[in-house]
Amino acid sequence: MSKEVGVTFNAGSSSLKIGLFDIGSGAAKRLGRAIVSLGEQPRLKYGSDDEIQEIDLPAASDGLGIRVISSVLDRLLHGDCHIDFVGHRVVHGGLIFKGPTLLTGGAMSQIRSLTPMAPLHQPQALNVIDAVFALYPSVIQTASFDTAFHTSQCSLATRLAIPRAMHDAGIRRYGFHGLSYKYIATYLQRFAPYIGGARVVCAHLGYGASLCGMVDGVSIDTSMGFSALDGIPMATRPGTLDPGVLIHLLRSEFADADKLEDFLYHQCGLLGVSGISGDTQALLEDFRPAAREALDLFCFRIAGEVGRLAVSTGGVDALVFTGGIGEHQPEIRKGIERHLSWMGLSLNEAANKSNATVLSSKDSAIEAFVIPTDEEQVIADEALAVISTHGIHRGERQWQTM
């Protein structure tokens, strides 16, 4: 008897995370995970913690195209596996998508129209979706949107100080990393219900980084705005930047918007400040002053954003760290704590060093946690919800392909 599985693809700007889920019971239960590192030579890493395997994938000019996706699925799926659905993370849903959706021809056209708003991420997700449809023309595919979690925010949080007609046309603050924040909000409701219903600031710190202020598990405000460039400094992105700087750069250093865009996405942030690397671990191991300055700026801006979000949420009862940096780098968390001691944040030194779930000391006015995020679980759960909403029986094939 074949095993019914769901597959999730989480396409980022530099990697592709894959989740494999057993859905035989009607719920999505994790079977395995894998990650594809992108570049001239794509590389797949998969397996259990005890036995990690790595293989080179066929290089392809179309990035995450048919050859790469076919090689990944051939390696991950066994002969007794039957793909029931494939769910995808799509970064930008614009004003169109306020929740997950079934991927039909019309939905795909709408997602493509939003590509200029997420030029690094949207094309990656679309390439994977197209590749899956080419390989499995009748499979059910769904999309989960990073922006959807933040559609609960009020106009004060989403509005930019520009003419009203521009706001109404979609030039506004959206926010991202919504799948991660949704997972954290849901986890807190189970793990610590007294905190899940309180005022929480979550810091998703990774290659891309942002913060979100939540009350009762609902997004109130977030650091990223119209694009994934906004907010705190990131590995190679600057975070909040005076628009006057952009005007100056267009008049002096850059001849067109495309070159400026590439500069902002790939040459700024921690890499730009340090001149060494955008990787916080590499900077932590480097003792040159520029490396320390980049890390100090990173922690300072994160702490400042916590303070700003506290205005939106009416205070902070708990601070959650997630993402690769947030989960694994106690030095960064300690650096943030130093700037937030005035708010009463105090970390237990031993707990912080061991990346424990509960970080805060007994006398801390703010509870602090490390919670590993799981965006793929959210994608799988949302895919099953979409299938149920549309009345598609498990094992039934999609009625509309590309």
From TrEMBL:
GO terms for cellular component: cytosol. It catalyses: acetate + ATP = acetyl phosphate + ADP. Its main location: cytoplasm. Mg(2+). Can also accept Mn(2+). Its EC number is 2.7.2.1. Gene3D superfamilies: 3.30.420.40. The active site is at residue 146. One of its GO terms (biological process) is acetyl-CoA biosynthetic process. Keywords: ATP-binding, Cytoplasm, Kinase, Magnesium, Metal-binding, Nucleotide-binding, Transferase. Pfam families: Acetate_kinase (PF00871). GO terms for molecular function: acetate kinase activity; ATP binding; magnesium ion binding. The keyword Transmembrane does not apply. Mg(2+) binds at residues 10, 375. It is found in: Cytoplasm. It is an enzyme of class 2 (transferase). Pathway: Metabolic intermediate biosynthesis; acetyl-CoA biosynthesis; acetyl-CoA from acetate: step 1/2. Transmembrane segments: none annotated. ATP binds at residues 17, 204-208, 324-328. Coiled coil: none annotated. Its cofactor is Mg(2+); Mn(2+). HAMAP family: Acetate_kinase. Homodimer. Catalyzes the formation of acetyl phosphate from acetate and ATP. Can also catalyze the reverse reaction. Belongs to the acetokinase family. This is Acetate kinase.
